[in-house]
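Components:
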Amino acid sequence: MKEAEHQENAITASDLRKTFADIVAVDSISFSVKIGEIFGLLGPNGAGKTTTARMLTGVMRPDGGAAAIFGHDIVSDPIRAKQRCGVVPETANAYTDLSAWQNLMLMGELYGVPKHYAEERANTLLSALGLLERKDQLVQGFSKGMKQRLILAMALLHEPDLIFLDEPTSGLDVQSNHLITGMLRELHESGTTIFLTTHNMEEANRLCNRVAIMRKGKIAAIDSPERLKMAIERLHTIEVSFDPAGTDDNLASLQGIESARREGDKWMITTEDVDSTIRAICAFGAEHQLKIEVLRTLAPTLDEVFLRVTEGGTV
Amino acid sequence: MSPEHIIEQAKRAFAITKKDIRIYYAKGPVVIFGLFMPLFLFLAFAAGNRGLSMPFLISGLLAMTVFFTATAVSPVIQPWEAQARTLERLIACPITMRTLIAGDMFASVLFGIGIAVVPIGIGVILGIVPLHPFLLTAGIILASICFSALGLLLSTPATNVPSNIMMLSSLLKFPLIFISGVFIPVEQLPFAGQALAICSPLTYFTDIARYCIMGTNTFSLAVNFAALAVFSIVFTVLAIRLHARTVSRRI
Ligand SMILES: Nc1ncnc2c1ncn2[C@@H]1O[C@H](COP(=O)(O)OP(=O)(O)OP(=O)(O)O)[C@@H](O)[C@H]1O
Ligand SMILES: [Mg+2]
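Structure:
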């Protein structure tokens, strides 16, 4: 814990590079993840997310550049770097010939966790992740969601300060998904740094403090989800409908409105200044004795940012 | 204790040993390759060569069983783990390649030693009691280490298909049986055979077994033990180096 106090970054990557034959999987990327942050790595299939995560977890050796975990270089000081991480790899499995409990105890031993403490942690994690009744069953019989929850428990057994998760919720049902994201929130609150790759924009948007979007081995954009969304769309859309519906077209001439068009019984209004436009709409309703039925602002989604960035645009 | 301390790493290696024994050694190949194969080879050979003495056959059987068992699963552990998708998680743990190899090797050594009880037991039932039990025990331990290291060395090619590795190691293991004095004493081999025999670690263990069970030997005991020790060190160092290089290609 001591090093953490002196260090600002949980992860620092500089010019990290990995090639496979003639494919440049990760093309000299640099970024850092602050302690306590939830950092999301997004990108289309084959962008290099998994390769990046593998280099940071010491599973693959970078061809160039360097990475440090809490100040420990992952190549020259791998044991100390790995000691402080928990890892949920993309295509990982627990040992199917062992029980959930045995898998957890194995992790405890591999991370040097004292036995009694490992047992206590295992009980806590298994019950938090809804696996306590199945703890003595072989993993062979577990469903995909149960396996993934177990793998998360295995990653958390030694109470890591940093956890890597490569698509932790892909292909899981709502319940498993909830349990896992709930656990991630709790970890975040207790100060654990989280590095996450995902294809789920909604999840990234809700969970992450900062996201990086990768494209063809490079980082195309990196910022907080809100700022990324703001950056792609100067104009905001406001949707409004009145009762009675058939109002005159004066609405379009209100101050600050760029455009207004009818869509069914609704108006779609675009504006630069959300605040004053909403006020103007309210005043307009009052003046013409119209009841506002629906009023909502449609901010650009992270999906749109993602598509824009990965299609080659910039933010 | 800091995680890279040798005692801490040794504990973690032992955790790997425990896992290997639980998972891999409970499976079929060890029993088949380690016990039945030598037993059938031995029976076929004994049936065709009635002139050979029982102590000769028992010591040959012992050498073969230890050799086959110690090299049975160690070569396929890593391909197996890669295929089962447990390897990435394992190498993300704070353990060195040395620790990983040591853990896998120790599991293999324990089985090599354990299986030796079977041929020795058969011998004792047939009235053949080892003349030098302590030397024999030392020989079995050293040979198990040596053969396990050889097994691990055989698994360094980065293929994830366990049967490929099994085939490769069988291609090496069967010829070794014939040039290592198991069936034909080294003295009776042609010169080329003798030259090859010197290169085979199995030769030295067979010789130790012969000495301890029937009292005859081709090389001196010191040469036998030294040769096994040198082979063990060379195989282990090479296995660690090569695995460190190839392991990430399995993922
Ligand atoms: N072990 C490997 N051998 C050869 N090429 C590889 C290997 N691993 C990854 N690649 C290549 O590197 C590129 C990046 O792959 P990576 O798995 O990092 O992408 P990703 O962003 O995780 O994709 P996905 O969203 O599909 O998981 C791809 O072109 C892939 O084919
Ligand atoms: Mg991936």
